[in-house]
Design a protein that fits this description.
This protein has 360 residues and is α/β, with parallel strands linked by helices. Helices cover 38% and strands 15% of the residues. Strands 2-10-9-6-5-3-4 form a seven-stranded mixed β-sheet, sandwiched between helices. The radius of gyration is 20 Å and the shape is globular. The structure holds ligand T4K. The site of ligand T4K has 24 residues, from helix 3 and helix 4. Ligand T4K binds next to helix 3 and helix 4.
């Protein structure tokens, strides 16, 4: 039987994609802000209702650029331990120390009530994560940032297409980043973006992502985070199909809701005035042993879920002097992201749910 993985990248209509590729052949412009990428950026600015948008080559460099945009290359950055490793690694790669603040047991996002106790004279920013595409407490974070003069940077890698209180989740904070990796709801094979809110920061990110120069004029230290026309071609096709992708993912989510014994599982908190993008379908089991049993039983039937997110990042082997984060550490031992993608059919969802029911 064919394996069912945690996700399957969306592939657009091949003829539509070929037409975009033909344009690349005609233009003979492969990268360095080509015409297809410029068009895609315009479409994404309009989709996200924000003109201060930069497409970059992945969601990790996006995080690094967001820190650099505010000259944060030393000191402490307060962050959430329950996320993909890139949230922490980007902070460390930029020469800062991650300071972990535990998560809220309901939302799985950073616990805003514990942040202020972690602020020191060395704190430069707060990098919070809209984990699985669900919102952090953005109002409380904005208030803390304002009162302590700290930049709020959101790792919104999972949040493309999620709206909270009438606007995109990507429009909160001093800056927000997203990933357009092949495994994401909207993807460009590899890709990502940085969103800011003023002309000066936007211009700075533009320089930083492109070696710090425009033609012969060199302004600052930069890096290469530029994207190719092939990424843009995939992005243009996928953005056109995005509404349908979300609609189909919502259907798969409903099938899971109906088939799973939800009274025995925990799911992330869904606040009011929030429109979800169906980025992931995580479930939390009562104990680590049950979780391990479910993984074993699914794997035995060629179904490969993923432990998004394990381990809790404060326990990474190269992180030193991190405080314990009991809520995150416990969640990381009990959480599983179930297979979840547009083409997953109802019969497969029922089969997965039956295996889980048997394991419980
Ligand atoms: N911040 C957060 C909160 C993030 O979650 C991420 C990335 C980032 C920052 C950094 O963004 P990027 O720099 O990646 O743009 C995957 C993704 O590679 C990663 O982008 C994502 N988060 C993370 C949550 O998941 P892995 O190591 O789990 O991927 P992998 O290769 O094991 O793929 C998962 C499954 O998907 C495979 O078992 C099979 C299927 N698959 C995958 C690919 C790539 C396919 O069927 N075809 C494919 O082409 O990290």
């Amino acid at each position: 039987m064919k394996k069912i993985f945690v996700t399957k990248p969306y592939l657009p209509d091949r003829v539509a994609f070929q037409e975009k590729i033909d344009r690349i052949w005609e233009n003979e412009h492969l990268t360095n802000q080509g015409p297809l990428l410029t068009e895609l950026e315009t479409e994404l600015k309009s989709f996200l209702r924000n003109p201060y948008f930069h497409f970059v080559t992945n969601g990790t460099l996006a995080l690094q650029l967001a820190l650099r945009a505010f000259d944060i290359t030393s000191g402490e950055v307060i962050t959430a331990p329950f996320s993909y490793v890139a949230t922490t690694s980007s902070i460390m790669w930029e020469g800062c120390r991650p300071v972990f603040v535990d998560i809220d047991p309901k939302t799985f996002c950073i616990d805003v009530n514990k942040i202020e106790a972690a602020i020191t004279p060395q704190t430069r920013a707060i990098m919070a994560v809209h984990v699985f595409g669900y919102p952090c407490d953005v109002e409380a974070l904005e208030d803390i940032g304002r009162r302590h003069n700290l930049k709020i940077i959101y790792d919104a890698a999972h949040a493309f297409g999620a709206d909270y209180k009438g606007k995109s989740l990507l429009s909160y904070g001093d800056a927000a980043t997203c990933s357009f990796h092949a495994t994401k709801v909207f993807h460009t094979i590899e890709g990502g973006c940085v969103i800011s809110h003023d002309e000066q920061t936007h211009k700075k990110i533009g320089l930083l992502k492109s070696f710090g120069h425009i033609g012969d004029d060199h302004f600052c230290l930069g890096i290469n985070a530029k994207a190719s026309e092939f990424q843009a071609a995939m992005g243009q096709c996928n953005l056109k199909d995005f509404a349908k992708i979300i609609q189909d993912r919502a259907q798969v989510s409903t099938w899971y809701d109906q088939a799973l014994p939800l009274e025995k599982l925990q799911r992330p908190f869904h606040p009011s005035d929030f429109s979800y993008n169906y980025a992931y379908y995580p479930v939390v089991f009562e104990t680590p042993d049950i979780c391990k049993q479910v993984i074993a039983n699914l794997t035995a039937e060629n179904i490969i879920p993923r432990r998004y997110f394990y381990p809790s990042l404060n326990t990474l082997p190269y992180v030193t002097n991190a405080d314990p984060c009991p809520v995150s550490e416990s969640l990381a031992m009990r959480v599983l992201s179930l297979p979840f993608y547009k083409e997953l059919d109802e019969a497969s969802v029922i089969r997965i749910a039956d295996i889980i029911k048997r394991s419980l």
